[in-house]
Amino acid sequence: MNSWIPFEWTAAIRFLKEGRMQTAFIITGIAIGVAVIVFMAALLTSLQSSFISLVLTSQPHIKIIPQDELARPLRIAQPGSEVLRVEQRPAQRLRSIDQWQSINRQLWKRTDITQVSATLSTSALAIRGDTTQSISLTGIDADSYFRIVKIPDYLKLGTPVLGSDSIIIGTELAKNLGVTIGDKFNVTGANNAAQILTVSGIFDLRNEGANETNAFVALRTAQTLSNLAGGVTTINVNVQDAYAAQTIAETIETSTGNKVESWIKTSADFFAAVRTQAISFGIIEGFVGLSVAFGIASVMVVSVIQRSKEIGILRAMGTSQKQILTVFLLQGGVLGFFGSLAGSALGGAAFVIFHTVVRQADGKEIFPFVLQPSLFVIAILLAITTGVAAAAMPAFRAAKLDPVVAMRG
Amino acid sequence: MVDASPVLKLEAVSKTYNPGTPAEVEVLHQIDLTLQHGEFVALMGPSGSGKSTLLNIIGLLDRPSAGGLFIDGQNTADLNDSELTSLRGHSIGFVFQSHFLISAFTALENVMMPMLVDQRFPNAAMRERAHTLLAEMDLDKWEDNLANNMSGGQQQRVAIARGLAMNPALILADEPTGNLDTKSTDTVFEMMRRVNVKDKTTFLIVTHNLDLAQRCDRIIEVVDGRIVRATK
User: Fold this and answer.
1) How far out from the chain centre does Cα A218 lie?
2) Which residues pair with B11 in a beta bridge?
3) Nearest-CA distance from A329 to chain B in Å?
4) CA triplet B79, B81, B82: central angle to 5 degrees?
5) Residue A314 to residue B117, Cβ atoms within 8 A
6) Do B85 and A314 touch (CB under 8 A)?
7) What is the pLDDT of residue A2?
8) Distance between CA A132 and CA A126 in Å, rounded?
9) Handedness of CA B122, B127, B132, B136 (dihedral sign)
10) Are strands A194-203 and A166-170 parallel, antiparallel or unpaired?
11) B116: nearest CB among A1, A18, A313
């Protein structure tokens, strides 16, 4: 016992040490609670990171497309008269974005944009022998486009190289056409423009529909097949902060006059799912935290009752109410600290084991391993706060004890 | 030889519980009492006579309903709880029948406790003072023992040493030998007397033991909340 350690700290630690069985049980209880919270938070972070990575590597943050074509009335109403008209929405032709090269240059100048890639999306027919299948053909500049949509990451066979007569297709389309790397098949686009293309890569986007219909060719090949020489239908953009995509999209729409969509708007369902998941986890964590708090509070209430005579004598020898209050608040905080230390280690270890043991059928990880040190810091700080808050009521009760009544027991 | 200035003065002190209710009861009536520095006084009386209430009021653990209480000339009526706690810590030492040592601490640490609470003493000075007091109580070999591992007589001597730690002007002892055998009773009493003579510390000892009371400077007898006799 030293004077440089405040009396409150010394008393708090000694009281906890003296009731070591009680202390051990409650620290175990807190550790289990914190372990559940750490494990679930790490799992949620990893799953969300996996989902977001999946969404963001398979689509651009922002897409710029031409405005829809509208019917233009030929007769204008004169002052004092009205024109009654029935407008029919016109069919949307395949159109290029006006001045897309200029827009491209403009976008590259922005510091919040990291990647720009112009593409041409059209529909076509894949024909091999008697087999004909409609496909969604995207003409790309492979170098820039693959920095936005990570097709090379999903390649099962071949290489992500696109010449003027090569094509990258999905596994299902390859199966349906009966082709593999180096095989050729006919692709017929709009106005019967056709070209024989060689399969240079086969990807698996882990989505049967996407694997069956999507195919990638060089931009110039797509322009030829769609009779849209020099044109593009989409400008794909990636930004520094993916979560700022919607705001950036709005500024691009204003400056270019084109239709601009961000992944946040087009993936609203995904965000709702992520939010629901986070809320569910939060509720579970909240209840676990509450049970930990009640555990600490019940131990502290018992401790105050057990030590009422000692509190009385401490008050009699000049210990202030504030000092008594601090002794019991500190006990709550110390319990929270040591419980959360053990719980963080336990939860972290459980997460490591879970990530190692639970795997996909092919042995690959189900989700990326994301265990940030800040999670442990937050868990420890929250546990200390919970411990102090849970000890507050018993601590106030101890501080308010009448020394005479307390010593009488 | 005693100092002339009083360490404690009670002027017409009364204590009423549950005032203004049907359960109202006055347990102390117009108590006048003066203790001089260095006095060694016994307080006697039958159970329920108001001795403990009087001791609690003198020890600033309870407030009188009426009358004045002066410690070393300071009127306590105007002090708030915090000031009373501070005055109690510095001027009054307590020794109780049931020792009330803090079981989580050693004998030495229990004696250091009032100084530690006070937060003004350097570590070395605190230890030295506690060690000296325990040595005076013939407990220097036991100073590292936890309070629970000592006999009743030893614990009571530790409690006396703790009561003396802040060098208070007044020690209030509530039946300090009540739970001790005859030999331990004599030892504890003699040690309190030795401190009283050596340091001129005033003792007010509640006891039912007439033999012990007769060895004190004065005997004050309380019956039904009134001082009925004060004999030398």
Assistant:
1) 32
2) B68
3) 17
4) 95
5) yes
6) no
7) 59
8) 6
9) positive
10) parallel
11) A1
Residues of B whose CB is below 8 A from A407: 96, 100
Each residue's pLDDT tens digit, B10-62: 999 999 998 888 888 999 999 999 999 999 999 999 988 999 899 999 999 99
CA atoms within 13 A on the CB side of A101: 2
Report the gap between the CA of A22 and the closest CA in chain B (Å). Answer: 14
The CA-atom distances, in angstroms, between A382 and each of A43, A332, A345, A385, A389 are 19, 12, 15, 5, 10
**Cα separation values, B81 from A320, A355, B73, B76, Å:** 9, 59, 18, 10
d(CA A340, CA A88): 66
| Rounded Cα distance, A392 and A384, in Å | 12
Which of helix, strand or coil describes residue A81? coil
Could you tell me whether strands B202-206 and B40-44 are parallel, antiparallel, or unpaired per DSSP bridges? parallel
**What percentage of chain B reaches a pLDDT higher than 90?**
42
Q: How far is CA A372 from the centre of its chain?
A: 14
What is the block-wise mean pLDDT of chain A (409 residues), using blocks of 10 residues?
76 90 92 93 87 81 87 74 75 83 93 94 92 94 92 92 93 95 92 90 90 94 91 94 91 92 86 84 89 89 87 87 94 94 95 90 81 91 92 92 79
**Which residue shows structure tokens 């009773």?**
B185
Q: Check: CB of residue A264 under 8 Å from CB of residue A243.
A: yes
Residue B178 has pLDDT above 50, yes or no: yes
Contact B181, B151 (CB under 8 A): no
Which residues 7-46 of A have a C-beta within 8 angstroms of B? 7, 10-11, 14-15, 17-18
Can you read off the two tokens belonging to residue A376?
A: 């442990």
> Is the distance from CB of A233 to CB of A65 less than 8 angstroms?
yes
Confidence of residue B2 (pLDDT cuts 50, 70, 90): very low
- When pLDDT is cut at 50, 70 and 90, the band that residue B99 belongs to is low
CB-count exposure of residue B98 (10 Å: 0-12, 13-18, 19+): middle
**Chain A contact for B96, CB < 8 A?**
yes
